[in-house]
Each structure stands twice: as structure tokens, then as C-alpha cells.
Amino acid sequence: MAGTATRPLFARQPIFDSDLRIVGYELLFRGMVGNEAVFEDGSEASAQVLINALTEVDLIEVVDGKRAFVNFTLDMLSAVPEFAKKHLVIELLEDIPVTPHLIDKLRELKAKGFTLALDDYGTRRYPRELLNLIDVVKVDLLHVSPSRLPLVVESLESFNVQLLAEKVETLADYDRCRVLGFEMYQGYFFSYPQVISGRPRGSDRHTILELISTLYREDVQVKDVVAVINRDPAIAVKLLRLVNSALYRRQRAIQSIQQAITMLGLNRLRSWVTLLLLDKSSDRGNALTELTLFHAFFCQTVARETSPPMEDAAFTVGLLSCLDAFFDEPMEDLLKNLPLDNLLQQALLANKGRLGAWLRLARFMQRYPADRVSDNALEKLGLTRVKLTSMQQSTLQEVFEATNILELSQELIA
């Protein structure tokens, strides 16, 4: 199956220290064409950059183990992924309104260990209360004249901040900033932004809204979250890729969505899912979703009847069974970045093992009645024809109920 064309995920521009060693990268939004940042919604653009960096590629690899500077709007501050705090620098945009709510939020993030940066300093005045919380101040040389630059630096002497000169375009700019004590540098004089491309995997925003609603219930349990994620394979893939990234050090392979959620934790999951909502990828049709749900529910039902400890793994196999059709990419390529154990890998790639046999049966039962299944196959599966018919009917009902939930949520949102 031919793969869909890649498109820009984001761009990265290196940040250097005074010895011209790379100490971090700023991750920048890029549109569909060329190396340009063209967007209408700052929150959406920043969310898309962060989601792509966390789930479409490995963030730690992209920044070579260094820090990632990402623009944050006020809306984005409610969705900061805590699991990335060692490598993520929260860069506050110059037009962010300074309010008591913002100060409280920044204090909270600072207490959690995040690094805070202030963008485009010199174009407006900031209260001391804010500057006392900032770690890095970025001075845009295109907006601050050479004659004003010493005054800008002097205004920050009483604060415990590092100075970063951005939009450095000439050797004279660099020399001037070094003399004034700048510690970091970024701009075309050193390097143009490099576009990182890939094939983003969209998620149904209605499912994401339902997931957020579930996550913020007072009595939420992991099983409730699993039930929602299991209805959207794209969200499941993003979650598994996140858990498989270098941000985590797994002790064992992941066998189910439930294991991935347990490992991540509900608090971290809340931040991540909120980012997904801000990333407005296009919604998909229901045909493939219904097919995938049938595979997942049917495999789970067979496992419940014949091998209950394998229910979660069986559902996961069914949930991921149509990935190649969803994303128009070979299954083998898609599974390379998912932390699945060998049993799941073999079932999805070669229909091998008990999970593979259940998946083959699910695909068959999605199209044909139980009387088309051979006696030999029934004996190997440990099922009767009557039981198989009942399982087929119950699975169809589960798919119907699940898709109705999605349609109802769409009506409520519309």
C-alpha cells in the first residue's frame, strides 16, 4: 500500500552558547509549504508542534538530549506535559497577558521543576514579580537597536536570568552580544531552521473531548480511560509511541493500552490529552473505525471465553489491526516505533500464535456467518458454532453502542 506524502511536523533551530556549542533547539511551527511559519491560532500551532515532537518523533533524539524551547500561549499553560520537564523550556510569548492567574501558574510550573523563558524582551515592560520567576530572557535583535541593547541588558542585571540573543544575523551582532554578557545565541548567522517532516496521525477530536471529560471525573479509574481510548486507534498509537520514547525507560514490553496508561499515570495523561484537543487534526470517517472496533471487541470476547488473562492483549491486537489502512503505511513500518511485545508483533504481522488466530477469526466473522467456519477450526479454537454465532451478535451490538456514543458526542458538540 502506498504511503501518504510526508509533510512538515515542525522546524528546529539550534541555540548556541558563547563557545558555539549547541545547548538546545527551538521547535518552530511550519506550514504545509516551505520553511515558513504561517498560522492563525497560536495555541493550535504550539500544540501541534509539541504533539508532533512527543508522538510523531522521539523528542530526545530530535534535540540530541538537550533542551527544547517551545512557544506557549496562555491556553497552552494548562496543558504542559509534566513528563517532559527535564528537556522542555516553556517559552512565554511576548503578548501573553500578565495577570495574577498567570503568575500563580508560573509559580506552580517553577515548583515542579520547569525552565521558564521570556520571548522578545525589550518590546514591553514586565513586572518584577514575573521576571523573578524567569530563567532565560530572549532578546530579539531585530526589535532592539544596538544603541538600546546595553540599556536592556542593564535592566536585567538584578534578576537571576540567562540572556539569549535571538535573530542574530551578522558577526557584528554576535560580537556585540558577547561583549554585553549574553550566554546563548540563536539566528541565521549560525543556522537556519531545519524542517523535520513525517506523517502525522490524526485523532477524532470528539473522542478526545470524551476522554478529557472522563479523565477529569473525581471517581475516574484506569478502566474507564481505557474504554474511551480503545474506541480510537489513532489515540492508542500516539499513546504507545509516547510511552516508547526516550522520555521513559521501560523495564518490560507493553502488552496493552491499560499498561501504557498505568505507566504514564492519570495526571500526566490529562496534560497530554489536552494537547491532543488543541491539535485540530482532521476527523476521519466511521467505516474503518467500525471495522477496527469489531476486530477489537471480537478478539476480546474470544479471549474472555477461552483464555481470560489475555483479554487486554486480545483487544489491543484488534484495535491495532487496521493501522495500515488508517494511516496508509505498511504495518511493519508502523509497528517499529510501538512498544509491543513479540506475541502482539507476530499476531499483527503474520497472524501467528493464539492472538493471530483470534484476529484471523475476527476478520472472517466480520464478513461471514458462523456456519462458514470449518469444524476443524472450531475444534482448534475450543468454540462451538452456537457460541460463535452468539459472540458475533454480541460484538455487533458492542460496536453499535460504541459508535452511537461517538455520534452522540458529536451532536452535543455541534
From TrEMBL:
User: Which InterPro entries does the protein's record reference?
Assistant: dGMP_Pdiesterase_EAL/HD-GYP, EAL_dom, EAL_sf, HDOD, RNase_Y/CdgJ
Signal peptide (from-to) = none
Q: Mind telling me which SUPFAM superfamilies this protein's record contains? A: EAL domain-like, HD-domain/PDEase-like
Query: What SMART domains does its record include?
Result: EAL
Q: Where is the EAL domain?
A: 1-207
What PROSITE patterns does the record point to? Answer: EAL, HDOD
Q: Where would I find the HDOD domain in this sequence?
A: 201-397
PANTHER family in alphabetical order: CYCLIC DI-GMP PHOSPHODIESTERASE CDGJ (PTHR33525:SF4), PTHR33525
Q: What is this protein called?
A: HDOD domain-containing protein
